[in-house]
Amino acid sequence: MKNEKMLNQEAGNSKGIDASVLGRTPAAENDVNEYTSELQAVNALLKEEIEVRKNAEKALHRSQDEFRFLFDTMVHGVIVQDADSTIIETNDAACEILGLTKDQFLGKTTYDPRWKLIHEDGSPLTPAEMPSNIALRTGKPVVDVLIGAYIPERDTYHWILTSSTPKFRDDEQQPYLTMTTFTNITERKQIEQERQGHLRFFECMDQINRAIQSNNNVEQMMSDVLDQVLSIFDCDRVFLLYPCDPATPTWTVPMERTKPEYPGVGLMGTEVPMDPDVARTIELLLSADGPLQFGPGTPYPLPAEVSKRYGFKSLMSMVLYPKVGSPWQFGIHYCAQEVVSSTEDVRLFREIGRRLSDALMWKGETEMVADSVVQTFAGNRRNVTVYVSVCPGFEKTLSKVLVSLVDITERKLVENALLRSEAILNEAQRIGRLGSWEL
Q1: Rounded mean pLDDT of 162-188?
Q2: Taking residues 212-229, what's their average pLDDT?
Q3: From CA 142, how far away is CA 161, in angstroms rounded?
Q4: Which residues sit opposite 407 in a β-bridge?
């Protein structure tokens, strides 16, 4: 058995026991101490590195959480696709805009035939024209492409403004994914379309008003108005039929205008026997409070015999009620193709018809035309031509008149500039002549 002295010697050099007692030389002891110090330094560095990595991982997790939160809650739709154009990630906004769940999205390409993708002009958008596919093919970003996407569940189109950006790996020439972002601008586009519709409405009505006011001859005035209608609706024929009465044995077309490739029906002043289809069409018009459309895609069929005889595929028409005399039928024909007019065009046609109803009666009666100057609400002075027409039956009392103003400020500016130029020229000529006389 080891004695107590030997056990004490083995117990520990840490208590200052001479290293020689433990069988180690001082040099070996120094080596051990150096290695121990080095290990302690390495351990400290490792602990510091571990702590840095832990903090970096925490920061990475926070950043990933923040990115995921932003990705999931942003109002812009986002779709991530791989090099094969397969969707590998999407966010809630994309699902909302396109009416799909994430499960329905993942694994698809962005070209789903159910979406019936279209360009702004209504033409189909092919897969090759998709911004994401262009970005994958060219390696360049595609910015602000307007696309219409049909949403089957809502039976409507959403208009989305789309951009796509390719992403590359280091030292690779072809992108390995694209990120496509898009915004639903349907409401904004609808507002813009409404604004454009209102602007077109007023511009067209101004053309009609000018045609009505520019001539006191009723026949010439009506001819000018029909020419404007032909242009405004881009139709193939516009006509006035009289009388608009299903009980009358015959009817005539006192006036019409046509495109050259679709000549008139050749009925000017000719009485045509009333047939059951025409009578039925007139009955429908008389019972309606405004224009009706006839032909494919509308609730009413074309009058079979006359549509075949005169070659029109769609008809929009309404009844004109002048103050005196029987009603007239006012209508437009589309011969080249079937047309279903928009709500805006129906509204415009209605207002033109109302103006024609008035013109059939009071044009050529008591009128006054004069140039004047008015001040706008903003305080600007504008030159205008004022048209005043006394309504029929009120010639003695003048208690009911129609007043319209046409802005002629720009015309006046041009006229005044021309007058100044002429005055300067006349003065120059006068001076020139005086100079020659002095000689």
Answers
A1: 91
A2: 84
A3: 11
A4: 384
Per-residue CA distances from 206 to 183, 195, 348, 355, 403 (Å): 37, 17, 12, 11, 14
What is the residue type of 161? L
Q: Judge contact between 117 and 128, C-beta under 8 A.
A: no
State what percent of residues in the chain have pLDDT above 90: 34
Q: What is the DSSP letter of 311?
A: T
Check if the beta carbon of residue 134 is closer than 8 Å to that of residue 142: yes
**Residues β-bridged to residue 334:** 314
Degrees, nearest 5: CA angle 51-52-55:
85
Q: Both tokens of residue 184?
A: 């639903």
Contacts 24+ apart (CB under 8 A), 86-95: 88/177, 94/182
257: closest CA among 332, 170, 168, 175? 332
* pLDDT for the residue 363: 43
* Bridge partners for 136 per DSSP: none
Contact 282, 300 (CB under 8 A): no
- How far apart (Å, rounded) are the C-alpha atoms in residues 355 and 207? 12
Q: How far apart are CA 177 and CA 174, in angstroms?
A: 9
- Model pLDDT, residue 274: 93
Candidates 85, 295, 304; CA nearest to 180 is: 85
pLDDT of residue 164: 93
Mean of the per-residue pLDDT values of the chain:
81
Q: What is the mean pLDDT of residues 185-197?
A: 86
| pLDDT greater than 70 at residue 111 | no
Q: Please provide residue 327's backbone torsions phi and psi, each rounded to the nearest 5 degrees.
A: -65, 155
Summarised one tens digit per residue, pLDDT across range 339-368 is 999 999 999 999 999 988 877 654 444 565
SS3 assignment, position 163? strand
Decide the pairing of beta strands 272-273 and 381-390.
Answer: unpaired
| Residue-level length of the chain | 439
Element at 287 (helix H, strand E): helix 276-287
Return the DSSP state at 336: S
* Closest of 211, 262, 214 to residue 239, by C-alpha: 262
Is residue 148 within 8 Å of 119, Cβ to Cβ?
yes
| pLDDT on residue 429 | 64
pLDDT of residue 399: 55
- The three-state DSSP-derived secondary structure of 352-375 is HHHHHHHHHHHCCCCEEEEEEEEE
Q: Is the pLDDT of residue 32 over 80?
A: no
The distance of Cα 107 from the centroid of its chain, to the nearest Å, equals 31
pTM exceeds 0.70 for this model: no
Whole-angstrom distance, CA of residue 118 vs CA of residue 186? 14
User: Cβ–Cβ contacts within 10 Å for residue 258, how many?
Assistant: 18
